[in-house]
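Format notes (please read before filing issues)

Several people have asked whether sequences and C-alpha cells are stored in separate files. They are not. Every record keeps both together, in the order shown below: the sequence lines, then the C-alpha cell lines. Line labels are part of the format and must not be stripped during preprocessing.
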Amino acid sequence: MRAGFSAFPCFFKYHWLINGKSNVDWEYRVDPFDRMASAEVADRLLITSLDDLQIEENPFAEGFLWNVHRGRYHGHPVAVKKLKQARSLAPLKKEVETWRRLTHPNILPLLGYTELPLPPMIVMELMDGSLFDLLHNRAVSLSLLRRVEIAFELASAVSYLHEKQFLHRDIRSFNVLVRGNDVMLADVIGVAVLDCLEIIPNTPIRWAAPELFSSKDAFSQFSDVYAMGITLSEILTRERPYPQPWSVRDISRAITTGSRPQIWPPTAGMQELLIAEKD
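Then the structure lines:
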C-alpha cells in the first residue's frame, strides 16, 4: 500500500463519528460582536439602487425560499438570491445579519444586499457549481489528494462557523460550491424545515442527524458535524447518501435506527482511487 492511502483514516474517523450518537445536550450561546464595526460593514454592503446591478430573468437554481439568478454587479459576474415571497423578510434579515460578520476563505463572501422598497435580494460570488455536481460528474477524475483537500476546506469552514458560535443547519454537498480549486460553504444559515420534508424536492433529509426527526429545534453543532460527516462519506464514495430508491419514510427509518452510508465494499467512485493507485 502506497503512502497516498494514509489519508483514508480521516474518512474512517468521520464514518465512526456519524455512526455514534450526536444527540448531546448543547446550550447555544452567541458571543456579542462589535456592533459599531458590524454597522459599518452593513452600510458598505447595502445596495440602495439597482443601477449597478443587472440580473438575468431566468434563475439557474432554486431553493425552498429563494431563486438564484446570474447577474453583474459593477460589471463583475455575480449570483443573486431573490426571495420568493417579499412579505417573508425574516430569512433575508437573519441571513444578512449572520453572513456579513463572517470572513473566511472557505465561506462564500457576501457582496451586497437590498432592503425594501427594493426587491429583497442577496448578491454573492458566482461559482462554477456545487460539490454535488462535481462529485456526480464521472467525466471528472478526482484524486485522493483532491478529495482530502475538499474535505479539509469544508471542515475548516464549519470549524470557523462554530468558533463564531453560529450554526449552519443545512450542510450538504449542494451547499458547498466550487470554482477551480476554490471550495466555499454557502447558505451559512441553512433553513432545513423538517415539517416540509415530504413536499420539498431534493430535501436534505439524507444529511439530517437522527435527533432532528424528533424535534426540528434540535439543531446544534453536533448535528452540523453529523451532516458534515455524511458529506465527507459522499466525497469519498462519490455517491449520494442512501442511493437506494427509497421513499422519504424509508430513509427516515434507516437514519433513526442507526443505518449510515456504507464505504465498503468500494463504490465505483472509490474504485477510481484504487485504479489510480495501481497506475
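For reference, the curators noted about this record: The two ends are 12 Å apart (CA to CA). Helices lie at 8-19, 35-45, 90-99, 131-135, 144-163, 221-237, 248-256, 268-278.
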